[in-house]
Give the backbone structure.
Amino acid sequence: MKAAFRWFSRLADMIAAGLLAAIFVTFLLQIATRYLPKVITHFDLDYFPALTAIRPLGWSLELIGILWVWVIFFSCAFVVREQDHVKFDIIYLWVSRKTRTIFTIVSAAAIVAGMIYALLPTLDYIDWMKIRKTATVRNPITGGKIPMRTIFSVYGGFMIVVAVRYAWLAIDTFCHGPPKTELELAVEADAPKAKQ
Amino acid sequence: MSVELIGLLVTLFVLSGIGTPIGYAIMLAAVVYLGMAGLDVALAGEKILQGFYKSAILLAVPLFIVAANIMNAGSITDRLLAFCVAAVGRFKGGLGHVNVVASLIFSGMSGSAVADAAGIGKIIISMMTRDGRYSRGYAAAITAASATIGPIIPPSIPMVLYALVSNASIGALFLAGILPGIMMGIVLMIMNCYLARKRGFAMEEPVPLRELPRKTANAFPALLMPVILLYGIYGGVTTPTEAAAVAAFYALLLAMLFYRALSWRGLYQVFVDSARSSASVGIVIGGAFILNFIVISEQIPQAISAMLDGADIHPLMFLLAVNLLILLLGCVLDATTIILVIVPLFIPTCKALGIDLVHFGVLVVVNSMIGLITPPYGILLFVINAVTDIPLREIIAEIWAFLAVLIAALAVMMLFPDLVLWLPRLVGYSG
């Protein structure tokens, strides 16, 4: 079970890194294809037909937008750890461990409740978005434009995964106490090095 | 104030107060608001998705994070430090100056104060405290203080966020940050000089001047980064977002090909870490989209404007009040939260009072960076405490002098908008 979990988490890391790398590469392609035609005419390389075929990409900006939406919600669902989130934790760090347990359970339960409450209407909205399609990006296999439903579906998945994750966090906190804070983890990670 | 707005505020404050991630707390509060107002709760998701899909400018954020992480992983910090020690290590309070200058230069690459403190800061603190030349608290305090310069000098992630909420030009904001950033560096060095004399800190062994050219050459390609970035934007070669991609690409070339300090494995880790930080910032930005929608539909900025109109307030008084407020909020809130959630409330009033939005943006960013080192809640203090094990008590005891000069610098920037706007105007910003 644990091994499967770790394997899955590694796969998720890989996908998130891949999505971000794809944004990066698309940006570079966008800049390169805008300037290459000028460079080619400048150096009189026109007699290579493959080079003259290079044209500025029309679809890159929208593709980047799609990837960006996916990076955020996919990573929030599978890659971002509890201690990575931006939090206001003065009070949390100040109270006793027992109170922290209560805080963690209450906030996890609130997230689960909120996500479940908003889930069906949001799925409805996402499904309704099938009538809208991408403006420039096309499905590379069928050649058709992609419905926004497909692109926004990541948000529905995100809501479900977050609800499940925080339900699990609430149960785990109830049984084993609150998760470690960022500082505790940093000190632990640093401790072996400091001793050497 | 409507009942649903009260519901929103109560949910937001209670949840974020007990340590719920801010992004989720805002989303839940928005769901409560929409539910109580009898609106479709799917609006929350809709505003967030549409917001991300349409705001291309935000893409600079993940790309700058990638660039910063590559810089940190690619040993570029060591070369910069060697250069700084050779250049300013010979003066009284030498390593303190090295610290500030390294931050000034490094900030031209990372755009993130935390990356600065955790990367270059850790190395320099161990140099300063070796042989007990500087007290631990002093080393940590000057490191934290100089790390605040990071996001003032371009590239700057907080400025991208500010541009998003204010529609001010990113290019102008970046240029406007250069002089204030240098000014912050200078006041910190003056304070360091004064304290070094007063306490008689030991001097460094001066690096022979003939070694300076070699060390400069070694660090030179890294020093070019801010130049490339600014040329890209102002030469009309790239958009600001594309410039971020170019910056990341340049960092990659340096680290992998030129310095050969980054392996494929290291690069993969850079992308995983960057995706993680982008997403955790991203979810707060998402929260800001929906919160912004609610703030506008509740007409809160208009209410603030109307209130201030009646009071016939002077622009300078307004700036002073807002800056005091942000300074106070900075003691307890994160910079991202301040810029995305609090600042938008004041933008309409700024416009009405004729305050330049670029000037205001620089003040806001400088101010919220100072907030990173104000006790009790200063993320930079925590980061340094975590990576060096220097007790918070010792850091805080030494931070006040640096905090004072930084606030003085902020006051000067506030009183003299021309100082901030001179560079942007030079390249044609009309403000």
Notes: The beta strands of chain A are 133-138, 145-147. The helical segments of chain A are 2-42, 49-52, 60-78, 90-94, 97-128, 148-176, 182-195.
